[in-house]
Amino acid sequence: MIYGLYDDDGTLTKAAKNFVSNGLKIKDVYAPFPIHGIEKVIGIKWTQISIAAFIYCMIGCTLATIGMRYFMIVDWPMNIGGKPNFSYIQNFPSFVPITFEFSVLCAAHGMVITYLIRNWTLPFVKARNPHPSTTDDHFCMEINPVQNKASEDEIKSMLKDSGAVEIFEK
Asked: With the C-alpha atoms ordered 46, 48, 51, 53, is the resulting torsion angle positive or negative?
């Protein structure tokens, strides 16, 4: 892998657009904060994580409905505020806020766990960033010379011409 380290996100974005227009494939970009639009430039596909969010939300909705029916109708029916305690359907309007909040809770926790597992950013896992300054103030572009038609020297020359402050290999 060949890495180009930049000190400005605008310079990196401009260089990435130039590389892609010249037919080079950029494997990844490492940055201390999100660079909006870079995923379109380097060709990262949109994830299907929203489907996972919907599934987690439906699990939360189902668990909330089952739990409230059991707790409030089957296990320990109580007459609270004059509402009937023998039918879940008649009490459903009062259970909507609980159902919504529990659905959001399950979706949020599920999304965090999915994100951590998908990106492999779990505790005690070694970070995958190629240079320590990419978590502070620099931006790094990763190019695999095997995937590109250009030689390593051509790639390094292009990185240097595009404004990279440091070029290194791993």
From this structure: negative
